Amino acid sequence: MENDTASLQVSEEVSFLGNNRTTTLKEEERESIEMGTSVDREPEITSPRRRIPGQGIQSTTGQSSFRRDFEHAAAETYLMSGFAFKLLSYLGVGYRWITGLLALLCYAMLLLPGFLQVAYYYYFSSQVHRSIIYGDQPRNRLDLYLPMDPHGKKPVVIFVTGGAWIIGYKAWGSLLGLQLAERDIIVACLDYRNFPQGTVSDMIKDVSQGISFVCNNIAAVGGDPDRVYLIGQSAGAHLSTCALLEQATRESQGESCFWSVSQIKAYFSLSGGYNLPKLVDHFHNRGLYRSIFLSIMEGEDSLKKYSPDLLVQDKSNAKAVSLLPPLILFHGAKDKSIPSVASESFADALRKAGGDAQLVIYEGKTHTDMFVQMIRKLWRGMQMPHQ
């Protein structure tokens, strides 16, 4: 894995996930020229500053800083809107889609006050450090949510969002980041290539590389490398599970790796799908049509290859399964997007293969209801004394 992770040395002058960049008077002059003003030239003075990279050079003027924040917010909004229209172009816009969209818009209007609060926090909070680079692909970015209190080692959560493998985006985890950062937990929300930018193997590679990057560098911002938890939701749960199994398989075969599954204290899988051949028809009836889904999964012959439920049943993978961290599977009994039987079957297969698996089924809960339930359980689990 030549590009499996980006290496980084941390010192007093080098901060998490990148190199320091210091604003000089020459840079101020360039910014002033762009704004139509001028400054007197002085000898250059540089000094190292600790900062979270990925944010660019810090402007010395409030106006320039606000302009960059506004431009970034506009770019992110444009990108998210493009994902939505791209999804519609693949799924087709018929009567059912139009009526469903109108119902969704009405529902969104009711949620608007809360959404605006979260959006403001995401774009303007000093606790959120957006688009930190973890790889060489355009979507190899993560958002980092830091607690207000900088003292002591913090538990760390790596979150991989869902989105039907088509519209997944790191900002979908902003509510999770907000809630857990308030509880003194560091959160890293990974972005990854979506279809058609990439297919399932590209997505798994991105997720694995992001996990490696966080595990090996989070200590630089106060994270506890012995308390790193992984969360995958929906399509993100499928990709995260595949990444863990792939990594465990490499380790079981003695391959050299940039990170280890032993660095993950526990894995929380939320509303995931693990047996793809059994889900093809279900997704087709839900609007993710067979041809599109098979394109995402690199053809019908690859469905078994990317089905964790089937992989753990293969006795040749027994050693890899034994290396996996504890898996806690959450699912809502009324989930229509991915039936809860998907988690039930996978948990059973893991136990039979010797894995450490727990299954939590919530009666009356749907595909998205599980988010709040998981946050509560995860936070309670992290308050237990670290062994």
**How many helices does DSSP assign?**
12
Spatially, the strands of the biggest sheet line up as: 1-2-4-3-5-6-7-8
Report low-confidence residues grouped into runs of 5 or more: 1-15, 17-59
What pattern of helices and strands is seen along the backbone?
Answer: HHHEEEHEHEHEHHHHEHEH
What summary fits the major beta sheet?
A: 8 strands, mixed
Structural class: alpha/beta
Q: Can you give the helix content as a percent range?
A: 40-55%
Task: Tally the beta strands.
Answer: 8
- Tell me the overall shape: globular
Protein name: protein-S-isoprenylcysteine alpha-carbonyl methylesterase
GO molecular function: hydrolase activity
Membrane topology: Multi-pass membrane protein
Family: Belongs to the AB hydrolase superfamily. Isoprenylcysteine methylesterase family.
What is the topology?
Elements (H helix, E strand, L loop, with lengths): L24 H10 L27 H30 L3 H30 L3 E6 L7 E5 L8 E7 L13 H8 L4 E5 L9 H18 L5 E11 L1 H18 L13 E5 L5 H11 L3 H7 L11 H6 L4 H6 L3 E6 L8 H12 L4 E6 L7 H13 L5
Parallel strand pairs: 3-4, 3-5, 5-6, 6-7, 7-8
Antiparallel strand pairs: 1-2, 2-4
Helix pairs in contact: 5-6
Question: How would you sum up this structure, described in words?
Answer:
By secondary structure, the protein is α/β, with parallel strands linked by helices. The chain is 44% helix and 13% strand. The protein has helices at 25-34, 62-91, 95-124, 174-181, 200-217, 235-252, 276-286, 290-296, 308-313, 318-323, 341-352, 370-382, and strands spanning 128-133, 141-145, 154-160, 186-190, 223-233, 266-270, 327-332, 357-362. The relative contact order is 0.10.
